[in-house]
Amino acid sequence: MRLPRTDRGRLLLVLALAAAVTAFTATVPLLRDWFDLRVYHGAVDSWVHHGGRLYDYRVPGTPYGFTYPPFAAVAMLPMALLPLRAAIGVALLLNLAALTVVLRILVGADWRRYGWYGCALGVCALALFEPLRDTFSFGQVNILLLALVLADARLLATGPGRWAGIGIGLASAVKLTPLIFIGLLLLARRWRAAAVASAVTAAATALAAGVAPDASRFYWTKALWDTTRVGRLDYVSNQSLQGILARLGEPDRAVWAGAVLLVLCVWAVRTRRAVAAGEWTTAFALTGLTACLVSPITWVHHLVWLLPSFAVLVRAGHPRLAGALYAVLCTSVVWLWFDDASGVDGFLGSNTYTWITLGLLVWLPVGQLRAAPRRLSRSTSAMAPAPSPAAPAIAPVFDQSAPPSARGVPATAAGSVAGPGCDLTRGASSEPTGSTHPSESKPQSSSSRASSYTAKPPPA
């Protein structure tokens, strides 16, 4: 298929793709009806205006309520001033702003190379990405947390990182999963950043304890350990190691602990290599992959943490592989096994997203990031002197596996191409997502069987 080369042809293609994407998202996937946002809004509203206890609230007609740490509720207090529809509008704007920040960090200034046409195609592709669609449709906080964490990656890669750790600390206070990024800072021996992240998490948690002492006491002593508040481990949306074992009928926690330990070892080895190469985006991508694998529950919408991995693949020169894996994550393929995940096909198919996450953790390129080629303007190329035999026009390609000093590249120069995203510029989850019974599982399926569920909304 030949892509159009004229602006008119490109505009027609973009309009056709936009119409197709709109039709797909409006009809094929099961819309989540802002279920998570309704949990947040209802819990905070009940807590502030009706004297209810934060963790006692349940969405009417469902067994699902607030399951995040108390600081998350404190951060959401302004929501109590808004009606639900206004809160939905604000959530959409915040998620769009956070997605813009994430893309700016991952792509850097290179987006200008693609112009309006490339950006429009990129928006269409993002709209198809199932974890991202679900994050918006649920009114979830995943993309906000990803933006906070990647902001620290940016700070670590582009300077001394004096303020690095604040984003990770805030994200960890809102949700427990980002705590693993403090482990990344410790692995990288960025002691100051690790201390900042830990201090911010502790301060935010203490603030919540001061504002809501009863809720904090209940959460840390009871709610955190009550797995029935979260949902079924074997639910097909749970794309973690624990989800695989649960669908196999393997309840032994020792087996899960062993698998988690093995994954953490792989993460530690590969992350230290990425940090040694100065590739902070790769290190953060590997950590996001690991967080999805080791968390007891990783719902499909949590997989927005895979986005940095695709940026790394493209930057390392593997755009086709990135496109193929990304396309699979747009298909909602795991929902084909919503009713029955038994057999070999169920083992392979229902865990498709977990296999992709594992594969990226093991094979994500490390030490191969490179700056995108820059187009020289005609005026510059016209004024450039002709190359001489002593100064060949094409510089030799450095061995990317060797350290900067071995390649004759100053450490500061090497850092300019190994930062976040494009890295070009220098200078146990607990959510109301699963279910307790298949017929009351708030299915996230895009299949017609799941779509027939109307009495209760989809999971968080």
TrEMBL record:
InterPro entries the record matches: GT87 (IPR018584)
Where mainly found? membrane
Top-level lineage group? Bacteria
Name a Pfam family for this protein: GT87
Where exactly are the transmembrane stretches of this chain?
86-107, 114-132, 164-187, 193-212, 254-270, 282-307, 319-338, 353-372
Membrane topology term reads: Multi-pass membrane protein
Bias (Low complexity): 435-452
Per UniProt, the keywords (alphabetical) are: Cell membrane, Membrane, Transferase, Transmembrane, Transmembrane helix
> Quick one: where's region Disordered?
394-460
List the subcellular locations.
Answer: Cell membrane
Q: Does the record carry rRNA-binding as a key word?
A: no
Q: What family is this protein classified in?
A: Belongs to the glycosyltransferase 87 family.
This chain's protein is named DUF2029 domain-containing protein
Q: Which organism is it from?
A: Streptomyces plumbiresistens
Give the classification, highest ranks.
Bacteria, Bacillati, Actinomycetota, Actinomycetes, Kitasatosporales
